[in-house]
Predict the 3D structure of the following.
Amino acid sequence: MTANSTDSPSDSSGEVWQPSDAALADLLGALAYGELSAFDRLAEDARTAPTLVTRAALAKMAGAEIGHYRLLEEHLRTLGVAAETAMAPFVTALDGYHRSTAPHDWLESLVKVYLGDGLAADFYSAVAGWLPEPTGSLVRKVLADTGHGAFAEREVAAAIEQNRQVRDRLALWGRRLLGEAITQAQYVVADRDELAELFVRGFGDMSGIAVLFKKLQLQHNRRMGALGLA
Amino acid sequence: MTANSTDSPSDSSGEVWQPSDAALADLLGALAYGELSAFDRLAEDARTAPTLVTRAALAKMAGAEIGHYRLLEEHLRTLGVAAETAMAPFVTALDGYHRSTAPHDWLESLVKVYLGDGLAADFYSAVAGWLPEPTGSLVRKVLADTGHGAFAEREVAAAIEQNRQVRDRLALWGRRLLGEAITQAQYVVADRDELAELFVRGFGDMSGIAVLFKKLQLQHNRRMGALGLA
């Protein structure tokens, strides 16, 4: 890659590459639908939470996701795109992911939220590294922890402490989640040319994307460890 | 009532009356659980909303309710009371109300949110008139419209325009909601001495409460009219 005064990637001619508005709208649309889906999941989990304290905690996390959704909606508007238009192409894949990984109980829910949010945050923060401003800053802001992390670690640790069977089941569950997420992500990219080009250009080339995948997998395993499921 | 330099009610001895912290915690606990329940309802409605636009609109309203919940939780903390402790006495009555008025479809949901929020706002703003500061201001802030109003009016108007049967069904539904709300409110007050005393003292006497009930009924009817259901 040719050196240039900014951190923006450049192509072999030395020209600074800028992602198209359509590709940015795709990226933000996928992120926005991710927030809306996360809201749904958390709100549903809140309803089945075992105590009033956990119910309120999950409802507040759901509220934080919607705060992020609002920021994305607002930013999409400045690009001249309605949030619903930007989100529409990603509904099938994300709903497919959630359908194929419907949690059977409260603990599977917690593990899914924890690992899924972590994976999304890792992926989008890698992307934010080469996004133009103000989009890069917005993405970083939207990925701010909404409090799931510490909460999930506490609850899962308490549940598996005395029960090896639960631990093994959740460990299997955590590994399955990564597989399903990668499957759906591949469908999305195969279907959206602008987005595929964005990633290839942004990460340099296909080997840049391979490096990213390896990194996402390592971080997923590290999070499994933090839950006591390694 | 003896005249005094503030708007605070005074008893026949001319002494200015101040609600106890326990009564305030009850009042705020009921309001907080109302917000948490409203969040649940809106989040559930969001899931069944007919379009991505309405789904996002309802999710944002649910997020606003949680914003209000956070303010109440914070204020309760300054009174030395955990939100879950303050809410606990009101769970049965509010859940009972929601169970006995479970909407059968999207339109019944909308009408319920619109009328229920209106009723709660009327009631709490009457109460805020004689609450000490900063509790009075907090209650007024928490009652700020979260955007349901215009949204529900638009959706219901569109649905009943061409369908008299739907209109009649929703009109009946709207009247039933008021009856159920009053029934549950009576259970709550009968069960909570501090709260009952707060209302009697705050509104002056039993006839003050009768005036309030009349006013709530009139405003409910006015809102039925705004929905086209009078």
In short: Chain A has ten helices and no strands. Residues 21-226 of chain A form a domain with the Ferritin fold (CATH 1.20.1260.10). Residues 1-8 of chain A have pLDDT under 50 and may be disordered.
